[in-house]
Amino acid sequence: MNQLTGLAPVSHPDARALLLGSMPGAASLAQQQYYGHPRNHFWPMMAELFGFDAALAYPERLQALQRNRVALWDVLQHCERQGSLDSAIRNETPNDFAGFFQRHRQLQLIAFNGKKAEDSFRKLVLPKVMLPKTCSLLVLPSSSPANAGISRPARLQAWSQLVEQLQ
């Protein structure tokens, strides 16, 4: 098993939504970029939902999310995993959500990119950290190319809840 360390959060203090994955896959960790696998549906969906070009350079895509008051992070700071599948994650250590919530007092929504992110958050974070009072939770279908059981239109429709809840 490989010991992995996740990426730093991408956020601005006025963020209203926090999108959480579980742990970046191997391609993302190698590039040090969220959702770096070329077949991941995340960036094309975000571009369509928030009205920017998915072909923008990575820093500009991050800026587009921040302009829309969306932060990115992962539930896990460290874990062991062989490959990139969530099902292979072992020995999880969560990120510092108490500190994040202190710095992001306007959060209204925590959205999970897949069930594993939600499960890890409920197991490792919720028992120890108080959510911001105005914060709701939303589980979305994974944007991973491994999640082939959902069509692109159905995935996009589910993810449109993110935009709806931010309005």
Automatic annotation (TrEMBL):
Coiled coil: none annotated. InterPro entries: Hypoxan-DNA_Glyclase, Uracil-DNA_glycosylase-like, Uracil-DNA_glycosylase-like_sf. It comes from the Bacteria. Residues 8-163 form the Uracil-DNA glycosylase-like domain. Signal peptide: none annotated. This is G/U mismatch-specific uracil-DNA glycosylase.
